Structures are given as C-alpha cells and as structure tokens.
Amino acid sequence: MGAQQDPDAELMLRVKRGDASAFEELVNKYKQPVINLIYRTIHDLDEAEDLAQNVFVQVYRSADRYQATAKFTTWLFTITRNLCLNEIRRRSRHRAESLEATLSEDDEHSPRQIEDVKAAMPTDEILEGELEEKIQEALRELPENQRTAILLCRQDELSYEDIAKVLGTSLSATKSLIHRGRETLKQKLKPYLRTGVWKD
Q1: How many Å is the Cα radius of gyration of the chain?
Q2: Which numeric CATH code is attached to 1-95?
Q3: C-alpha distances in angstroms, 55 versus 28, 64, 120, 132, 176?
Q4: Is there a common fold for 1-95 and 118-200?
Q5: 3-state DSSP of 70-109
Q6: Domain spans in the chain, listed from the N-terminal domain onward
Q7: Does the domain spanning 118-200 belong to CATH 1.20.1250.20?
Q8: Which of 24, 64, 68, 185 could form a disulfide with 3 if both were Cys (CB 3.0 to 4.6 A apart)?
C-alpha cells in the first residue's frame, strides 16, 4: 500500500523529510493505542509509558529508512510488539518476584480503594468494572500470540492481513489465533456474561 491510500504513511514520509510537526501528529494520534497495547502485554503502566516513548524514538530514528510499502499502523505495531517481546524476555527471570510484589501491594491498598469506588459508583458501573477486570485477567492468561492478535483486532483500522504482518504469521494462522483466543476468553468469561456471544 502506498502513501496515497494511507494518510499516516504520508505523515511518516514527511517525518522522513524532517517535518517535526508530522512526527508530533503521529505521536498524538498513536501514543494511547501504543501504551494500551504495551500495558495489556506487560501489565505495568509506568513501564508501558516508558516503552511507548522508546517505540516513538525508534520510529523517529528509523524515519530515513521508512518505505510506505505497508500501512503505517502495521509498521508501528510491529515495532511495538518487538519491544514488548524484548521486555518480556528481559524480565522473565524475575517474573515470580515481580508478581509477588505486585500482589502484595494490591492486597495492602485495594480494600480501601474498592470501598471508596463502590460508595461513589452505581451498580451497573461496578459490574462493568468487574467485567473489565475479568477480561484483563483472562487476556493475561492467553499465550502471547493469541493475546496480541486479540488486542490488535480491537484496533479498528487493522485488518487480519495487517495483524498477520505484525505477528509475522500467515493469514490463516492469524485467523486461527484470533478464533482460539476468542473461544478461550468466551469460556473463561461465561460465568460473567449473560450470553456466550463474543462482542467485537
């Protein structure tokens, strides 16, 4: 796909020519989706924000080599996923310690927070919050490829073909990952949902 069909690719080509305002526009547009993807992969908001900065540093440094041969988002999320995988590998030795620390912090602080939130929130919002928590928990338990495929699927502008490029898999393998991930999520979330229908 050329830049003519992808306005973001055109912006990136302007970055390649030294246009700082085009880079700022891309950062403003994609900073939150990048942070969201990283956070849902590594479950650490501070680290997600730091890694998102690294993603955009890498985008900027790679500008001179950028070719508008695919959608900008495909290229961006490929960089994001690679940095996430590097981070997962880096911290894999210390995963158990990090998890224990996180759980004990949550135990220390969450009872008071939950009371405050429940006092202020209507019942529907509490249920929505609990469901979102269960969805995040179920997502965390998926294999990395399935989780990333599902998260990328939630990005409106990404097609299955784009997701396949980010994951480095075939189109059929990508569809299979998404299908298996959704089925697993549906089974895990059945107790919390009125129907077994997956809502995109």
Answers
A1: 19
A2: 1.10.1740.10
A3: 13, 16, 37, 27, 28
A4: no
A5: CCHHHHHHHHHHHHHHHHHHHHHHHHHHHHHHHHHHHHHH
A6: 1-95, 118-200
A7: no
A8: 68
